[in-house]
Amino acid sequence: MDVYVVAGNPIAHSKSPAIHKRFSEQSNQKMHYGRLQPLLDEFASAAKSFFAAGGKGMNVTVPFKLDAQELADELTPRAKLAGAVNTLRMENGKIFGDNTDGAGLARDLLAQGIEIKGARILLLGAGGAARGVLGPLLEQSPKELIIANRSNTKAEELVQLFGELAIAHQVALQSVTLGYLEDAGKTASPFDLIINATAAGLSDKSPISDVAASHIFIPQSFAYDMVYGKVTMFMQQALHRGSRVSDGLGMLVEQAADAFLIWRGAHLNEVIDPRAVLAELR
Ligand code: ATR
């Protein structure tokens, strides 16, 4: 039987095994999907052992996505641009690295009726999570995308890195500091879509102040937090202003669906039902 795992540290609470079990049941695939928790400095050796023993594929989560990128023999263009790998596939003795996070977010947004094309988007954060979703967002031609981060250096690096892609899709791409969002004006005006890709939610904080929130959110806005499992402070700020909100559980399920199709075949796209799996998880 083909064997797959999700690798992370910690990994005990990962929902990926349950999600992939449902996909394999929906599509009649005989496969086993487990968990792997390498020591923090032993990802490469753990992954090599897994594939040497016949493992077919691996999902990679915090904190190993960069290690996975280094390990892969070949990367897809989107994995290169994302600077991280969340899906590894073994084929003919070679390890292929891909990244399905951004596509997962885009699909979850579309499934929730959010139009990215022509939208004014505010992306909060400039770390790995933000970088991972920038490519797929820009490819859908929003009107404008502003990256806001505590320190402008990292946000500006992303603007440089994704500048060409933004021009190709006619997106006005720029960076600001989080503090700048408190100044009402052109930048701190309402957005159609505000995505929280910072780690602030994990420690029960919001990356933006209430003053900034009052400029950014209006009832027509949609606020998306990549964190899942709770209503974060960021989501509460948006709800308070009448905006629609979503956590990141749909993104988790959709990125898993893309990984499943990479491993088991794109033709199964017609058979698996990520939205049903999401409803079951909720
Ligand atoms: P990840 O790979 O999950 O994105 P990361 O690379 O450490 O993790 O990046 C975390 C992001 O969350 C960064 O943009 C970070 O801001 P800085 O670049 O200024 O460090 C942001 N972040 C973390 N905690 C935050 C907080 N309490 N408020 C605002 N931003 C925060």
Automatic annotation (TrEMBL):
<feature type="binding site">
    <location>
        <position position="255"/>
    </location>
    <ligand>
        <name>shikimate</name>
    </ligand>
</feature>
<feature type="binding site">
    <location>
        <position position="248"/>
    </location>
    <ligand>
        <name>NADP(+)</name>
    </ligand>
</feature>
<dbReference type="Pfam" id="PF01488">
    <property type="entry name" value="Shikimate_DH"/>
</dbReference>
<dbReference type="GO" id="GO:0019632">
    <property type="term" value="P:shikimate metabolic process"/>
</dbReference>
<feature type="binding site">
    <location>
        <position position="101"/>
    </location>
    <ligand>
        <name>shikimate</name>
    </ligand>
</feature>
<feature type="binding site">
    <location>
        <position position="226"/>
    </location>
    <ligand>
        <name>NADP(+)</name>
    </ligand>
</feature>
<dbReference type="GO" id="GO:0008652">
    <property type="term" value="P:amino acid biosynthetic process"/>
</dbReference>
<keyword id="KW-0560">Oxidoreductase</keyword>
<comment type="function">
    <text>Involved in the biosynthesis of the chorismate, which leads to the biosynthesis of aromatic amino acids. Catalyzes the reversible NADPH linked reduction of 3-dehydroshikimate (DHSA) to yield shikimate (SA).</text>
</comment>
<dbReference type="InterPro" id="IPR022893">
    <property type="entry name" value="Shikimate_DH_fam"/>
</dbReference>
<feature type="binding site">
    <location>
        <position position="228"/>
    </location>
    <ligand>
        <name>shikimate</name>
    </ligand>
</feature>
<feature type="binding site">
    <location>
        <begin position="14"/>
        <end position="16"/>
    </location>
    <ligand>
        <name>shikimate</name>
    </ligand>
</feature>
<feature type="binding site">
    <location>
        <position position="86"/>
    </location>
    <ligand>
        <name>shikimate</name>
    </ligand>
</feature>
<feature type="domain" description="Shikimate dehydrogenase substrate binding N-terminal">
    <location>
        <begin position="6"/>
        <end position="88"/>
    </location>
</feature>
<comment type="similarity">
    <text>Belongs to the shikimate dehydrogenase family.</text>
</comment>
<dbReference type="GO" id="GO:0009073">
    <property type="term" value="P:aromatic amino acid family biosynthetic process"/>
</dbReference>
<keyword id="KW-0057">Aromatic amino acid biosynthesis</keyword>
<dbReference type="GO" id="GO:0005829">
    <property type="term" value="C:cytosol"/>
</dbReference>
<dbReference type="InterPro" id="IPR011342">
    <property type="entry name" value="Shikimate_DH"/>
</dbReference>
<comment type="pathway">
    <text>Metabolic intermediate biosynthesis; chorismate biosynthesis; chorismate from D-erythrose 4-phosphate and phosphoenolpyruvate: step 4/7.</text>
</comment>
<dbReference type="InterPro" id="IPR013708">
    <property type="entry name" value="Shikimate_DH-bd_N"/>
</dbReference>
<protein>
    <recommendedName>
        <fullName>Shikimate dehydrogenase (NADP(+))</fullName>
        <ecNumber>1.1.1.25</ecNumber>
    </recommendedName>
</protein>
<feature type="binding site">
    <location>
        <position position="61"/>
    </location>
    <ligand>
        <name>shikimate</name>
    </ligand>
</feature>
<dbReference type="InterPro" id="IPR036291">
    <property type="entry name" value="NAD(P)-bd_dom_sf"/>
</dbReference>
<keyword id="KW-0028">Amino-acid biosynthesis</keyword>
<feature type="active site" description="Proton acceptor">
    <location>
        <position position="65"/>
    </location>
</feature>
<keyword id="KW-0521">NADP</keyword>
<feature type="domain" description="Quinate/shikimate 5-dehydrogenase/glutamyl-tRNA reductase">
    <location>
        <begin position="115"/>
        <end position="200"/>
    </location>
</feature>
<dbReference type="Pfam" id="PF08501">
    <property type="entry name" value="Shikimate_dh_N"/>
</dbReference>
<feature type="binding site">
    <location>
        <begin position="125"/>
        <end position="129"/>
    </location>
    <ligand>
        <name>NADP(+)</name>
    </ligand>
</feature>
<dbReference type="GO" id="GO:0050661">
    <property type="term" value="F:NADP binding"/>
</dbReference>
<dbReference type="InterPro" id="IPR046346">
    <property type="entry name" value="Aminoacid_DH-like_N_sf"/>
</dbReference>
<comment type="subunit">
    <text>Homodimer.</text>
</comment>
<dbReference type="GO" id="GO:0004764">
    <property type="term" value="F:shikimate 3-dehydrogenase (NADP+) activity"/>
</dbReference>
<dbReference type="InterPro" id="IPR006151">
    <property type="entry name" value="Shikm_DH/Glu-tRNA_Rdtase"/>
</dbReference>
<dbReference type="GO" id="GO:0009423">
    <property type="term" value="P:chorismate biosynthetic process"/>
</dbReference>
